[in-house]
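Box 3.1 A note on notation
Throughout this textbook, protein chains are presented in two layers. The first layer is the amino acid sequence; the second is a token string describing backbone geometry. Keep the layers aligned when reading.
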Amino acid sequence: MDKVVPSAADAVRDIPDGASLAVGGFGLCGIPHVLIKALLDAGTTDLATVSNNCGVDGWGLGMLLAAGRIRRTTGSYVGENREFARQYLAGELEVELVPQGTLAERLRAGGSGIAAFYTPAGVGTQVADGGLPLRYAADGSVALASEPKETRRFGDRDYVLEHGIVCDFALVRAAVGDRHGNLVFRDSARNFNPLCAMAGTVTLAEVEELVEPGELRPEEIHTPGVFVQRVIGPVGVDGKRIERRTVRPRTTQGGN
């Protein structure tokens, strides 16, 4: 039952080239940057990632992207990564853009054994009708476009069929975890991390604090250990970054 492995390098050692990865976090919050760095150091390539976003330039999944290790990515937000935009527009990266709520539900469905579901999100757009550029050619033309999806009417509303997502591996980061793989996420890190943990056939968790079995109350556990196969930690909180720092001008005493 003890799922703790000695290091991040040991945790990612059997992730092969061409693997699909569900990666937790939102922006730079709650991203498993220790495991991502270990994967970068391992030289693993030709990866297909599923994550809310693909990191930023030089950090998170952005490190793998800059090294040319990601072949395809599925996500819902891409606005903070110049290298991502460059690779996509140059035809070096295949991109599937998914509405954020749909992406979350596709991961949850896959982790729950649900093959597909209907949603109204995207009906009447290229999300349902097809034609979204998945990959560009070097000359800027569309080399590969998304296919139309099945739609069906329920009551007085149309819905589009979306498939659940299951990946070969999942990488997540938790505030606290025990040796059995039970995980607790803090604040906004409890976004895509629990969903990605469910969607991985093999789930790797880095934890900031490692506790013994029984120290976590059952009602405070967000991801049960049944979804987690490997744990590394404690990794501490060093290395966390702020995606976009916004501050107001310092005021002098008296408000001037």
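The helical segments are 8-12, 33-42, 61-66, 82-89, 100-112, 126-129, 193-199. The mean pLDDT is 94.
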